[in-house]
Design brief:
306 residues, 2 domains
Length: 306
């Protein structure tokens, strides 16, 4: 039987992580004068006191104190937060979404996600170099008989600037796939809808035909590419176009859509989905889970629109 995590249990984990954070900050502040004193004693005889000497001691002490803060946060606070965040996502988020009518068979895999090959085939964002690809926090299940899976995705590429190689981020956000719906229209090949501010190397490769619809507002905001022109007009009905516009209005981030066969892919450039906030009481985070779940509900409406 699956363990139920109450708000009280989660609040206890959050409070513990927050308390440890305060302790680590206090320890780091205490180390500042301690480091300053130690280096003063070690260097005063050799350098003698001066304004430059005092400034040097302050800088050294500050750097070491910040380093201490980072080290202690990583080995103490991060572990406590990760424990809280895992319980929040794997239990509480699922419990909350399961209470929303229409959601079924939900599962969450912290280290699961889309494969690099999935993203490349979807043509929803530029997939970048496979060796730098990251994907985690996989949530999947069904909403009103439509199967879905959603995951955080980061794509990167190696670039050469000023005679130096460095890794640059292309896309960071969520990718969602909705599929297996018996009565929906099936797209004959790729139909890509990119919000114009989304158009960059982030959008990856584009299908052969550039499409213009009869909706000027839509055309001004989105660029459409299709493998087959007739299929584009078949899929992009006036009702579905309005759904896409409404969805983009509601989302805090850049969006793109790809219809291909029985699937709809949606990409949104924004912060991680369903992340727990250590600075806010758990009771106040319930609303955000509902809002994040609406992202799935609204995308489903785009998929089934006629």
């Amino acid at each position: 039987m699956e363990t139920v995590v109450s708000e009280e249990m989660l609040e206890s984990l959050r409070s513990k992580a927050k308390k440890l954070e305060r302790i680590v900050v206090i320890i780091s502040l205490i180390t500042f004068p301690l480091y300053g004193f130690l280096f003063y004693k070690a260097m005063i005889d050799e350098e003698g006191f001066s304004a430059l000497f005092a400034l040097k001691i302050i800088i050294i002490a500050a750097v070491l104190s910040i380093g201490t803060l980072g080290f202690l946060w990583f080995i103490i606070v991060k572990q406590a937060y990760d424990k809280f965040n895992l319980a929040f996502k794997s239990k509480y988020v699922l419990q909350t979404i399961n209470e929303i009518a229409g959601f079924e068979k939900l599962q969450y895999i912290p280290k699961g996600g889309f494969l690099w090959d999935d993203v490349k085939e979807a043509a929803i964002v530029a997939c970048g170099d496979k060796r730098y690809y990251e994907s985690e926090d996989l949530l999947f299940g069904e909403y009103e008989n439509v199967s879905f899976k959603i995951s955080d995705v980061i794509t990167k590429k190696m670039v050469r600037r000023n005679k130096k190689n460095r890794v640059e981020e292309i896309f960071s956000g969520q990718i969602m796939c909705l599929y297996k719906f018996d009565d929906m229209k099936v797209s004959n090949g790729y139909l890509q809808v990119f919000e114009n501010k989304f158009l960059s190397d982030m959008s990856g490769w584009k299908a052969e035909h550039k499409i213009e619809t009869e909706n000027e507002t839509f055309n001004d905001r989105f660029s459409v590419y299709a493998s087959d022109e007739h299929n584009a007009y078949y899929i992009l009905t006036p009702h579905r176009i309005e759904k896409i516009i409404s969805f983009a209005d509601a989302i805090d981030g850049q969006v793109s859509f790809v219809f291909n066969e029985e699937k709809l892919f949606v990409a949104v450039r924004r912060e991680s989905l369903f992340d727990a906030n250590m600075d806010e009481p758990v009771s106040g985070q319930h609303k955000k889970i509902i809002e994040d779940a609406k992202f799935i509900q609204d995308a489903k409406e785009i998929l089934v629109s006629q």
